[in-house]
Amino acid sequence: MYLKCFKKNNHVLCFLVFFVFGLSFYTNISYFLSHDSKYLRFFPPFIEGVNQTFNGHLGAEYYFIAESLAAGKGFSNPFQVDTGPTAWMPPFYPFFLALLIKLFRLKMLVACFIVFIKNLVLVATGVLIYEIGGKPPIKIRAEFTVVLYCLMLLTYFRWFFQLTHDEWLLLLLICIMFPFSVFIYENHINYKHALAWGGVGGFSILTSPVLGFVWFLTSLFVVGEKKNFKPVMLSLCVFIVACSPWFIRNYLVFNKLILMKSNLYFELYATNYETAHGLFDEPTFARQHPIWTTKNDPDSPYKKYGEVQFMCKS
After folding, report:
1. In terms of pLDDT, which residue wins out, 118 or 53?
2. What single DSSP character describes residue 37?
3. What average pLDDT does the segment 222-228 reach?
4. Strand boundaries in the chain, DSSP class E
């Protein structure tokens, strides 16, 4: 499916490769010029002495857990200090980063690899958007959808080109999930398709609880519309088998049912925290998020209470 899409739209593919990889190359040149701060004014946010390119970030907690995994300490220590087992983040990405750490050894090489994959995903997303834009009932030209996509990348330039988190992985899953769900919606699927769809669901929830929930609702919608009841029930079984070990692990370790990640309540609290000016900004984030307080504060609530109690008190 994807190969046909790329072959058919090779002119769009070439443009997006040039656009995405060109911007990525331009952004990361700042690392080589950071010895002289006056050159940093040529890179966003275009302020002399300010470097906002943090492609070694690698998802912070994701990467710190991955370091623990690579060091043989298990799924633990999300905040750079020995705080023991954790369920702070969903499991797939830390295990993937741990594999890269073992393979490349150097964080810089891991970051380069992630940036490269991220660029490929951004290109693939643009081609998929172009393909969708060329089909009815959309009334605008497919090329215009690519223009809008490129403007979106420029609008969120820092997020897509100056920072590495899990956004590329979520985009990749969306690029897989969307056309697959359309295929299932339009056809009566066989059991091979059902197994693959269930694998997508398991992969999704182990990467992002929200995407796992989207996959589940999509599956229910497909059952209702196309009567693919038995195949989709098989998909749901694969989904359950894929995520059950993580649920069981969390219950055995924390003696508490943690469906995927423990920081859901903290995220809900943090994003709705009311400051004097009404916004949850970076200074507030730095004062309250355990990614900073746990390492720097000997009386950090996370260290004091432990992960489960910290979540309850948050």
Report:
1. 118
2. G
3. 70
4. none
